[in-house]
Amino acid sequence: MKPTAQHNERIASMKFSSVYPHYVSKIEKKGRTVAELHEVIQWLTGYNEEQLLDYSSGDATFQNFFANAQLHPNAHLIKGVICGYRIEEIDNSLTQQVRYLDKLVDELAKGRTMEKILR
């Protein structure tokens, strides 16, 4: 499946703070902690705890969130299918970055070890 332009635009304009509580809920249901979630997000984006807390309660869109991030050099190693899309085949870089984050959160919720998640 290939994301459409409308799909990419919808993701770009979505607020990080509106999705963040869903990440927290997902991982806590599976016995993982917010600290582990923050570690995963910080690994991917390079944000520190304070910056992450600002984004999780602010009005920044995913476009702003990833525009200011320093993506981890190993982020390209995140592969697989998320929400019906093969991550490595997504041609829109922002949509791909959001799917990287989704995949990391999924791996955390599925109980993978931090060593495997943080490639």
Detail the topology: elements first, then pairings:
Elements: H1 5-13, H2 16-29, H3 34-45, H4 49-57, H5 62-67, E1 81-82, E2 85-86, H6 93-109, H7 114-117
Antiparallel strand pairs: 1-2
Short description:
This protein has seven helices and two strands. The chain has 119 residues and is mainly α.
- Kindly report the spatial arrangement of strands forming the biggest sheet: 1-2
The end-to-end span amounts to: 26 Å
What is the total number of structural domains?
A: 1
Estimate percent helicity. 55-70%
- Unreliable runs, pLDDT <50, ≥5 residues? none
Average pLDDT number: 94
Major sheet description: 2 strands, antiparallel
Order of helices and strands: HHHHHEEHH
Shape: globular
The CATH architecture name reads Orthogonal Bundle
Fraction in beta strands: under 5%
| Count of helix runs | 7
What CATH calls the topology is Helicase, Ruva Protein, domain 3
Structural class: mainly alpha
CATH level 4 superfamily? uncharacterized protein sp1917 domain
CATH class type: Mainly Alpha
Radius of gyration: 13 Å
Count the E strands: 2
Protein name: DUF2200 domain-containing protein
InterPro entries: SP1917_dom_sf, UCP033199
Organism: Nonlabens agnitus
Task: Describe it.
It is a single chain. With 119 residues, this protein is mainly alpha-helical. The chain has a single domain, classed as Orthogonal Bundle (Helicase, Ruva Protein, domain 3), CATH 1.10.8.290. It is 60% helix and 3% strand. It is built from 7 helices and 2 strands; from the N terminus they run αααααββαα. α2 (16-29) runs parallel beside α6 (93-109) and α3 (34-45) packs antiparallel against α6. The mean pLDDT is 94.
